[in-house]
Input
Amino acid sequence: PTATGRTRKKAPAATGSPREKAEAPADELPLTEDQEARYERLRQVRAELARDGGVAPFIIFHDRTLRALARACPKDATALQRVPGIGEAKVQRYGERVLAVLKEG
Output
């Protein structure tokens, strides 16, 4: 019981069943070989942008955003802005550079 005399409910325990694992969010699934190569190039560019801007790399883009970029491989600024973690300001600041990396392959 708590100080007020109430009892706390316990959250249900995860079962770890194969069904739960199969339903992992897309951003947690492994990248393909091509996507992994894009992800690594994007990480390099992010490091350069962070160094140039004097900020930590995660301020530019989180790893999750880089993985989403590697998967989606957007071709233009409109598609780039649909990627979670990228808004208009980041498209303005970094979009040209990111799209150039993605265009490479």
